[in-house]
Structures are given as C-alpha cells and as structure tokens.
Amino acid sequence: MLRTRLWMGTVLILLGVAMLVLDSHFEPYYPFLLLLMLVLCLAGCYEFLHLLPPERRPPEWLCYLCVLALILANWPAHLFGDALESPFKDPWGWIAPVLAVTVLGTLLVGMAHYREQAEPGHSVNQIGLTLLIVLYLGFLPCFLAQLRWHANGVGAVALTIFVPKCCDSGAYFTGRLLGRHKMTPVLSPKKTWEGFAGGVAAAVFGAWAIHRAAPSLPGGDLAALGFGLTVGVAGVLGDLAESLIKRDCRLKDASHVMPGFGGVLDVIDSIVFAAPVAYCWYL
Predict the structure, then answer these.
(1) Which residues neighbour 148 within 8 Å (Cβ) at sequence distance 6 or greater?
(2) Mean pLDDT value of segment 54-78
C-alpha cells in the first residue's frame, strides 16, 4: 500500500508540474489546465453519481452538462476580453450567469420529471443532489482556474494544488508513525490529531518552499506561512467533507482508479475545498 501510494503520488506530482510547464508556452489559453480540469471534474462527477444508489441518483446528463459549462465559463473573458463589453470582461461575469442558469435549469428539469406518485421529497432530494454535485465539482474549481491568470499564475496554481497535497502526505505519514488520538472517529477513523499536526506542518513548509521557488504571494515568507496554515487546514476539512459523502453512501473509497489513493474524488477533495481559501490570498 505504501509503495503504491508513493509511486502514484509521484506520477500525480509530475502530471501537475508538466501541466504548469507546458501551459506556460500557451498563454493565455492554458489548454492543459483546461484539459486536466475537465478530466478530473467530470471523472469526479461520475464517481459522485455512482456513490449514490440508482433510486437516489439525479439526472446524470444534467450534472455532466452543468459541470462542463461551469469549467468552460472560466475561459471566455480571458480569451476574448478585448472584444467584450462589461460585465463580461470579468470572468465572474460569465461564471455567475452560468451558475444561475444551472440553478434554474435544475428546477425546470425537476418540474418536468415530477411524478405525483413518487415518494414525498424525491424531487427535492434530486434537485439538492444535482446542485451539490455541480457546486462541488463545477463551481469550487473555478477559484483554482482563475488563479492561472493572476500576475504570478504559475506560483499561485502550484501553491493551491501542492500545499493541500503536502498536508495530505504529511498527515498520512505522521499518522502512521505517531498517530494515537483519534480526530474524527465517525467520519474518518484513521485520522489522528498527531497526523493533523504533521499535515499542517508539512503544508506550511511546502508553502514556504514553493513560494521561495516561484514567488507569488504579496507579503513574502510570512504570507507563505499563513497561506500554508489556512490552506492546509482547508484541505483537511475538504478531505473530511468527502469522507462525509462516502460514509453517508456506505462506501470507503469513491472508486479504485487511483491505486493507493482510491478514486479521483479522493485525490482532488482537499484541493477543491481549499481553492476558494487560496483565491482569497490573491484578492
């Protein structure tokens, strides 16, 4: 298990680095970031949907379509900004309307598929699950995407991706070696307070090291330490949020496509949750 986790983790790190390096030759299009986000978010959408029993599963086509639309909405303002009028020069001027259409469209689909003889609450549950999936895997990743167009986009995206993963790795290894006191015995029985402390320490160190290699945070080393602390803690909460979803669905892993980690959701959970926190550091 440990060996598998190490080689798979190395592959994922190299994939992230390759995306950043290759995209630096394609400003401002960033096709490799777009491709990676589409693959991971749509695969995560598939896993989330199939964690749910068939009778509770919302319309799959609607979830995929809305996640796809929200990811794509990050690009037009940056590609065609000079030819656009306000508010569409602002990327959130694209994302917000797509999100609004998603909410309205989800309600309309719920109305179209309503069956009077269905179990009470069935339609409301499906609408709620659709919006949860779309917000989790379509909207939250927008904060990561938008950092790529920051003046120091390479460093900003590197910090947002790798700091939560440093926290994951630090917590895993510290917990294995020193873990004694259970942190969340119901949601995630293997997590310990010792692992949490080791993970946050790894996140702080990782943020400092990445910022030194590719400076991007205003405020220097002190800001990097604060970034590591807040984004590391957000990553832990993201991991626990995904654990909540899996436990409620009575499953241990989202899937088995990522040897040593579980599924795509098990890899991106901390990054997705931490992305809005990281974005706030660059406002």
Answers:
(1) 23, 30, 33, 156, 157
(2) 95
